[in-house]
Amino acid sequence: MAGNNLSIIATETDINVEGSQLQAGGSALLNAARDVNLFSAENASTLSGKNESHGSSFGVGINFGQGANGLTVSASANAAKGHEKGNSLTHNETTLSAGERVTIVSGRDTTLTGAQVSGHQVTMDVGRNLTLSSEQDSDNYDFEAA
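Above: the chain's sequence. Below: its structure in token form.
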């Protein structure tokens, strides 16, 4: 965070900012000879797992008594298995904010993808194309047991 003003100037190239927070108490200026690109940062995670279990029991019982003589045999077995998998994708947006004025100047294109720009006054001078788009987070999970 800049206490007063923030200026980023690229006299021959692009300005690329990804997943960052740029703040100025006064004014903020991004000025690029070519492109200004403000992108969100991606965080991806994956989950994968398997499990398997087996069990068995065996028992023998002998009964003696009045009218209840006999032999008892019991047995059981079980098995289970399963798997899980999942993935998620989240985005950390880029923010550019100023207490007063924000100015973005690009000789060619300005792209804001997963980014927010805020100030008392926001001005853009774009040489060719201005692209504004949002990002979508996703989360998928699958579990199966048998």
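The CA atoms of residues 49 and 84 lie 5 Å apart.
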